[in-house]
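Support reply, case 0932

Customer input (verbatim):
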Amino acid sequence: MSRNQRAIAQYILERPEDCAFLTARELGQRVGVSESTVVRFAMAVGFPGYPDLQRALQDSLKQRLSTVERMQAGREAVRELSDTLQAVWRNDVANINRTFENLPKEAFDRAVGLLAKARRTYVIGLRTSACVAVLLTTALHYLGKDAVRVDLGIGDFWERLDSAGPEDVVVGISVPRYTRWTADMLRFVRQRRIPTIVITDSPLSPLAALADVTLPTVTDFNAFIESFAAPLSVVNALILGVALHDEAQTMSVLREREALWRERRLYEDADYGPRGDGAGADGQWERRLMPAMDDDKPRGG
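Our regenerated output:
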């Protein structure tokens, strides 16, 4: 990012309320750069153009409302549609579509590479963002990766992060209203030059400034919490990307995992036949992460 672009970013971070309603020319005049420089900045941080950046700033102002104010706004939106289920479904589908339309493929591919090659992955996701952190950490465990979910726990999160090094990667997950502890932890690892991936709501998020790779996800939701449909979908894509990074290793690890799950009879609803794989004569097949091998397919019509 050039010096002028850094100046624009700093100005926006310090005065988001003002910048949300400025034209590209007006913002350039405030910062002391040209209108074209402002437009190039918007594209450099992942937006198709300046109007999209401006819309993101305006949306971010909405996210600063209190939970009570947001719930009141959401209640009116649902009443207009007369159907809570339809309102949420339409909102989540729109969020997912907007996310994948604008998610930079280069950033996604780089994140997959970091996760696949990391000695250990530390995942930070607090409060409602914990649901995304749990999915990512658990799936990485399935793939045989060394992954640690860092939470507040007994207050030892600094000690847990203290063992992280340049060969590791830290994933920070936070959306408005951004959790201060998540930002503090990312600043800590950033100072130690540990690669960081951030899943947040916008390239203008304060967490994006602490990331080597930013994966923006749309979390708009007129209620007292964010919509996590898009962040969870992006994590699903990351998990599959990591799995396909080394397919032979992935299949080997998943076979070992399946053997362990069969041995421990992990799934309560599985009909464990003599083979111990949940495929008894009259039982349903276990739901598994890897495709069934030819000799594992159910026989008969």
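We compared this against your earlier run and they match. Two observations from our side: The two ends are 62 Å apart (CA to CA). The domain at 3-63 is CATH 1.10.10.10 (Arc Repressor Mutant, subunit A). Please reopen the case if you see a mismatch on your end.
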